[in-house]
């Protein structure tokens, strides 16, 4: 249960519908067609659904992206109703430890936003079952809204937390111009097949001085290097894009956003252990021995013993997740504003 709880903070839903058929695509960032293959024949380690997927590196800007790219119809089966982002935990059905861990992660998530603004209208894109919005509703002065394409997840957020969650996609243009003071995408941006289009729509609904907060897995992180094709951050086929700090900055500035703050790269125990689980199952098979070993590795004593690793990697900037806070540009950036 705790595993599903914390992975919920790491793996989001698909947010932006696409009408493009699967095909070899140009780089979503610099539009060049020249690339090298990073990983071939990747599997869906998370759900076990059949399929082979490929990640490539653009030779122009170094963005990592899925190529060929699955279309909306092909990707949908990989978001099942029991997908971890649709976690349905509440204070009533979780232990005190589970509820504490959930809120600890949500407090860390909220920090980059509340450092820059204390109140206003907040839209969380891909809010899933609404835990982040519920936390903000309970612990801040923000007026919260959600956008979630999965009707069952949205219904849970509406009924359990009494949240204002709309079922749909960004392209549905549900919200009026200049409506929100902040828009957040927590582990969602990498799921968007057309990020430039998404950023354009977000710019329309943001107020002129509004904030955009984006968190993504980082392809240059220590976890990505340790686990390679088994790193949970790859999450094929759901992750269309994998960013570095540089490519995320370039994607935002190219879409007329100005990054104004960065949260420190961070990691956590259970995503790390899930990546390790993928490695063990691939090398030794899924059997009683490997499952027993994984149970030991997930135990509380091991979690306590591993805490210094996560502290050190976070302090050194090697963590697997990065957060950026940005505003809409009001003019052409100066040379000093470039990454």
Write the layout of secondary structure elements.
Blueprint lengths: L1 H6 L27 E8 L10 E6 L5 E3 L5 H4 L20 H19 L4 E7 L5 H9 L1 E8 L2 H11 L3 E3 L12 E7 L8 H11 E12 L4 H6 L13 E2 L2 H10 L2 E10 L2 H16 L3 H10 L2 H16 L5 E8 L11
Parallel strand pairs: 4-5, 4-7, 5-6, 7-8
Antiparallel strand pairs: 1-2, 2-3, 3-9, 8-11, 10-11
Helix pairs in contact: 3-4
Short description:
The protein has helices at residues 2-7, 72-75, 96-114, 131-139, 151-161, 195-205, 222-227, 245-254, 269-284, 288-297, 300-315; strands at 35-42, 53-58, 64-66, 119-125, 141-148, 165-167, 180-186, 206-217, 241-242, 257-266, 321-328.
Describe the 3D structure.
The protein is of the alpha/beta class and 339 residues long. It has one domain (2-329): Vaccinia Virus protein VP39 (Rossmann fold, 3-Layer(aba) Sandwich), CATH 3.40.50.150. Helix content is 35%, strand content 22%. It has 11 helices and 11 strands. It has helices at residues 2-7, 72-75, 96-114, 131-139, 151-161, 195-205, 222-227, 245-254, 269-284, 288-297, 300-315; strands spanning 35-42, 53-58, 64-66, 119-125, 141-148, 165-167, 180-186, 206-217, 241-242, 257-266, 321-328. The strands form 2 sheets. It has a 7-stranded mixed sheet with strand order 6-5-4-7-8-11-10, sandwiched between helices. A 4-stranded antiparallel sheet has the order 1-2-3-9, with no helix packed on it. α3 (96-114) crosses α4. The longest helix is centred in the N-terminal third of the chain and has 19 residues, at 96-114. It is globular. The N and C termini lie far apart (40 Å). Mean pLDDT is 88; it is low at 1-21 and 332-339.
């Amino acid at each position: 249960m705790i595993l599903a709880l914390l992975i919920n903070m790491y793996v989001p839903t698909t947010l932006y519908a696409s009408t493009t058929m699967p095909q070899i695509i140009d780089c979503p960032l610099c539009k060049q067609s020249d690339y090298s293959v990073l990983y071939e024949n990747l599997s869906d380690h998370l759900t076990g659904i059949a399929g082979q997927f490929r990640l490539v590196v653009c030779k122009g800007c170094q963005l990592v992206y899925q190529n060929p790219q699955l279309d909306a119809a092909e990707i949908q089966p990989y978001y099942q109703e029991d997908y971890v982002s649709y976690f349905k935990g509440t204070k009533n059905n979780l232990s005190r430890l589970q509820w504490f861990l959930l809120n600890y992660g949500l407090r860390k998530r909220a920090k980059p936003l509340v450092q820059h603004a204390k109140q206003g209208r907040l839209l969380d894109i891909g809010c899933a079952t609404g835990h982040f919005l519920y936390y903000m509703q309970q612990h801040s002065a923000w007026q919260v809204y959600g956008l979630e394409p999965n009707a069952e997840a949205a219904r849970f957020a509406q009924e359990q937390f009494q949240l204002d969650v709309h079922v749909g996609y960004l392209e549905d243009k549900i919200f009026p111009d200049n409506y929100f003071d902040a828009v957040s995408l927590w582990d969602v941006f990498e799921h968007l097949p057309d990020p430039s289009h998404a950023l354009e729509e977000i710019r329309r609904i943001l107020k002129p001085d509004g904030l955009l907060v984006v968190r993504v897995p980082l392809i240059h992180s220590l976890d990505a290097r340790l686990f390679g094709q088994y790193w949970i951050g790859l999450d094929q086929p759901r992750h269309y894009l994998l960013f570095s700090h540089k490519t995320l900055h370039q994607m935002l500035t190219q879409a007329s956003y100005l990054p104004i703050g960065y949260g420190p790269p961070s990691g956590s125990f259970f995503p790390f252990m899930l990546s390790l689980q993928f490695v063990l199952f691939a090398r030794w098979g899924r059997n009683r021995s490997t499952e027993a070993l994984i149970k030991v590795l997930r135990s509380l004593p091991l979690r306590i013993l591993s805490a210094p690793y996560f502290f050190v990697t976070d302090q050194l900037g090697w963590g697997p997740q990065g957060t950026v806070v940005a505003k809409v540009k009001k003019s052409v950036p100066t040379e000093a504003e470039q990454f």
